[in-house]
């Protein structure tokens, strides 16, 4: 699949399945919905949706101000062409991560085993995708037992 060269864009590494914005079981590494990133973005590229920050890639310039403003450090930057994203920043081990979040990466490695390009590594109990090597085939999203990997194109949903 051909990849166009684009600037980096922000994404929020939180799938909002956790109770980070309140409740008893709080993910200490998820988006808390404070809006600091929304305020910091000079391009209006970030909005709070159901209490979680979401980035409009068409408006994001990759300036990095949102990432610097985020107290949770949950905003990451990826190449603009990267469509497969890990929406989790949690480093807790599987059982703990499952207890505090419905969509956490549990570090099981199923995604890395299924990736035909070898673009996924598990580090600190969380999957990380190399956007340069990723083929955007979506197989990692298909096999992820917790739904922590998001396919922006929706291709994997039909597999």
UniProtKB/TrEMBL annotation:
Please tell me whether the keyword Glycoprotein is annotated for this protein: no
CDD domains to which the protein is assigned, alphabetical: MtMvhB_like (cd10549)
Q: Where are the membrane-spanning stretches?
A: none
MF (Gene Ontology): 4 iron, 4 sulfur cluster binding; metal ion binding
Residues of the 4Fe-4S ferredoxin-type domain: 23-50, 51-80, 97-125, 127-154
Task: Give the record's keywords alphabetically.
Answer: 4Fe-4S, Iron, Iron-sulfur, Metal-binding
Q: Which PANTHER family match?
A: ADENYLYLSULFATE REDUCTASE, BETA SUBUNIT, FERREDOXIN III
Write the protein's name: (4Fe-4S)-binding protein
């Amino acid at each position: 699949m051909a990849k166009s060269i684009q600037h980096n864009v922000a994404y929020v590494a939180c799938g909002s399945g956790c109770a980070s914005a309140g409740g008893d079981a709080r993910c200490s590494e998820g988006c808390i919905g404070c809006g600091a990133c929304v305020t910091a973005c000079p391009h209006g590229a970030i909005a709070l949706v159901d209490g979680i920050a979401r980035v409009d890639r068409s408006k994001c310039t990759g300036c990095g101000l949102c990432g610097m403003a985020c107290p949770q450090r949950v905003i990451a930057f990826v190449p603009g062409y990267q469509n497969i994203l890990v929406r989790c920043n949690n480093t807790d081990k599987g059982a703990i991560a499952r207890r505090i979040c419905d969509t956490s990466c549990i570090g099981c490695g199923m995604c890395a085993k299924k990736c035909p390009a070898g673009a996924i590594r598990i580090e600190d109990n969380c999957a990380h995708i190399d956007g340069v090597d990723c083929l955007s085939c979506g197989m990692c999203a298909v096999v992820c037992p917790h739904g922590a990997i998001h396919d922006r194109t929706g291709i994997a949903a039909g597999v």
